[in-house]
């Protein structure tokens, strides 16, 4: 079963249970072969799937590629080091067909922030905060606010939540500024700030003032 950001493989036994599952961001390489076969290398292991028809194979590969293109702002074939300590490269051979998965991936404002954020939450095993998505898609977007202020999300439970939010900006083209003042941020958040600054093509200004950084 192909979900929005994840593949599930169920047993045929009763009761049915999930035998294999992985987030698409775990993929390191994906290659197609003859007889409708696709081999997917992930962080942990390699999976080989043989589909019944070429259409099924095209649908599977197209769905995964489209999902990753939403996370990386449509840089579908770019070899990149992705967010949250993740290296990502999709090597696609044997087919170039992409299916239309727009029903599962509705276009969101603010450079697709909500889609990237949701995918990273799933990858990191934390709950996706709808309030975060709403704030960005509604308030930031309606005000044409391109400055992402970490203070707006200081109420979140853990620094990991904030780190994933920062990581979501790395390939975002909407935000041009990242701002944090009078708010202490942990090392995990700092690491993601550094990663985001190094990878973003859109960020023009970074402000970290009285953020608890050690000199």
UniProtKB/TrEMBL annotation:
The GO annotation for biological process reads: cell migration; regulation of Arp2/3 complex-mediated actin nucleation
Classify the source by domain of life.
Eukaryota
Positions of the CARMIL pleckstrin homology domain: 1-73
GO cellular component entries: lamellipodium; plasma membrane
**Pfam families reported in the protein's UniProt record:** Carm_PH (PF17888)
InterPro entries, alphabetized: CARMIL_PH (IPR041245), LRR_dom_sf (IPR032675), PH-like_dom_sf (IPR011993), PP1-Reg/Actin-Interact_Protein (IPR051279)
Question: Which SUPFAM superfamilies does its entry note?
Answer: RNI-like
Protein name, as recorded? Capping protein regulator and myosin 1 linker 3
Q: What is the lineage of its organism?
A: Eukaryota, Metazoa, Chordata, Craniata, Vertebrata
